[in-house]
């Protein structure tokens, strides 16, 4: 597997490929503009490695070793793995830790982990001393293809998910595709739904490559072999596409909204399941629900739903959610982000091209009814 670079559109690079954890030190030096060979005095720069209690024991040592060999002083902070930790208390503890470790504006945060680590580590970097640099080393598929791109950082608050945060771009994203080997089947499915979404909304060629790689299906086992062969290309395509979308609309005024394909119903399904169903699995169902509706209304060409269904069900996702449509629409209407007279629903004008259609909130169930 080759290493590939993508310029994510904000003046920083995303480096993708196998074996990159061992190169972390030198790559971070380059990204921070530190030249020369480390001498006994080192770089004079301190790095705070922010990770969780699952990823830290798996990959923390390798990253720390590489950073130290490149002349950095490294301090490590681990939080209990999982979404439950994604709150302001964890970030406040970490920021306190940065201060206690004597970090200054010239130092940086290195985030090693999934989307939760990236969102919190980035948010801490955005706020400590009013902003220091940070580097992302995504380890979940979801973080690699989605959350590490776009600069959204933040935490959940009791009133809702991701309601507190900041836009803060990393100085480098380093994606070692070898780490996908330790992801569970559930985590793979969770991340791959965003891959399918990205291809479906923006790149028909990419979608066709996914169809070809998936063949006639075979469940998550196929997913693992697809990633073994094509991980770097898949992450690169997703980063390139999301990077382009975000570059043209960082703050979600227009184009960025297409990234929400499948998400209106996905959020409702996640809530209905009391978050017992992962986001990605809910997005897979959401994409099918909205495409069934848009095809029926002539907004998507005939056959679109068939192709999506074949890919999604072939990889082992559930294709429907057992709850009354009215219930899901009621949840969607009460979503804080959807308050107002209309909800923007993303539909496929064709595979590889998305558009937003405004639907009256009061007519949401009519829109989705097939
Ligand atoms: N900022 C954005 O634009 C954006 C976009 C999408 C999602 N998100 C956020 O991302 C979060 C979900 O991301 P996530 O699922 O990566 O969360 P996560 O960081 O909690 O990772 C999920 C689980 O996978 C484990 N894990 C990560 N890498 C692993 C590896 N290589 N091997 C074994 N286990 C590993 C973690 O320890 C954790 O238990 C949500 O909080 C969501 O809001 C943010």
Notes on the structure:
It is a single chain. This protein folds into 2 domains: 4-182, Rossmann fold, CATH 3.40.50; 185-214 and 257-368, Dehydroquinate synthase-like - alpha domain (Dehydroquinate synthase-like, alpha domain, Up-down Bundle), CATH 1.20.1090. It has 13 helices and 11 strands. It has helices at 24-31, 55-69, 88-100, 115-127, 141-147, 185-202, 204-214, 220-248, 263-272, 279-296, 304-314, 325-334, 364-368; strands at residues 4-7, 13-17, 46-52, 73-79, 108-113, 133-138, 152-157, 160-167, 172-176, 342-350, 353-360. Strands 1-2-9-6-5-3-4 form a 7-stranded mixed sheet, sandwiched between helices. A two-stranded antiparallel ribbon has the order 7-8. A two-stranded antiparallel ribbon has the order 10-11. It is globular. Bound molecules: nicotinamide-adenine-dinucleotide (NAD).
Reading side by side through the largest sheet, how are the strands ordered?
Answer: 1-2-9-6-5-3-4
Name of the top-level CATH class of the largest domain? Alpha Beta
Could you tell me the strand content as a percent range?
15-25%
Low-confidence stretches: none
Gyration radius from CA atoms, angstroms: 21 Å
Number of helices: 13
The ordered H/E elements are: EEHEHEHEHEHEEEHHHHHHHEEH
The CA-CA distance between the termini, in Å, is 44 Å
The portion of residues assigned to helices is 40-55%
Shape: globular
The total of beta strands comes to 11
Bound molecules: nicotinamide-adenine-dinucleotide
CATH architecture of the largest domain: 3-Layer(aba) Sandwich
- Mean of pLDDT: 93
Describe the sheet with the most strands.
7 strands, mixed
- Quickly count the domains: 2
CATH topology of the largest domain: Rossmann fold
Helix-strand category: alpha/beta
């Amino acid at each position: 597997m080759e290493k590939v670079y993508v310029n994510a559109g904000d003046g920083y690079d995303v480096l993708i490929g196998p074996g990159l954890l061992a190169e972390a030190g030198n790559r971070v030096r380059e990204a921070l503009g530190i030249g020369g060979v480390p001498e006994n005095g080192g770089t004079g720069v301190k790095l705070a490695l922010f990770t969780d209690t699952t990823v830290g024991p798996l990959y923390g040592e390798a990253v720390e070793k590489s950073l130290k060999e490149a002349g950095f002083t490294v301090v490590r902070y681990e939080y209990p793995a999982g979404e439950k930790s994604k709150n302001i208390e964890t970030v406040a503890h970490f920021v306190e830790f940065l201060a206690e470790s004597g970090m200054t504006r010239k130092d940086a945060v290195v985030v090693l982990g999934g989307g939760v680590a990236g969102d919190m580590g980035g948010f801490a970097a955005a706020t400590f001393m009013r902003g220091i640099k940070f580097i992302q080393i995504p380890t979940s598929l979801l973080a690699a293809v989605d959350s590490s791109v776009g600069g959204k950082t933040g935490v959940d608050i009791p009133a809702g998910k991701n309601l507190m945060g900041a836009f803060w771009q990393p100085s480098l994203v380093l994606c070692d595709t070898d780490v996908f080997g330790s992801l569970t089947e559930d985590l793979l499915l969770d991340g791959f739904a965003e891959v399918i979404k990205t291809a479906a909304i923006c790149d028909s060629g990419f979608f066709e490559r996914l169809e070809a790689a998936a063949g006639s299906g075979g469940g998550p086992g196929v997913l693992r072999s697809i990633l073994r062969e094509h991980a770097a290309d898949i992450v690169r395509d997703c980063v390139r596409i999301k990077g382009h979308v975000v570059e043209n609309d960082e703050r979600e005024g227009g184009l960025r909204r297409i990234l929400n394909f499948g998400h209106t119903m996905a959020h409702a399904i996640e809530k209905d399941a009391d978050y017992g169903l992962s986001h990605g699995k809910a997005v897979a169902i959401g994409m099918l629900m909205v495409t069934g509706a848009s095809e029926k209304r002539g907004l998507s060409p005939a056959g679109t739903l068939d192709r999506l269904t074949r890919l999604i069900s072939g990889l082992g996702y559930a294709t429907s959610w057992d709850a009354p449509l009215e219930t899901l629409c009621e949840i969607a209407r009460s979503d804080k982000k959807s308050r107002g007279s209309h909800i923007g629903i993303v539909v496929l004008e064709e595979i590889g091209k998305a558009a937003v259609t405004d639907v009256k909130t009061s007519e949401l169930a009519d829109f989705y009814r097939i």
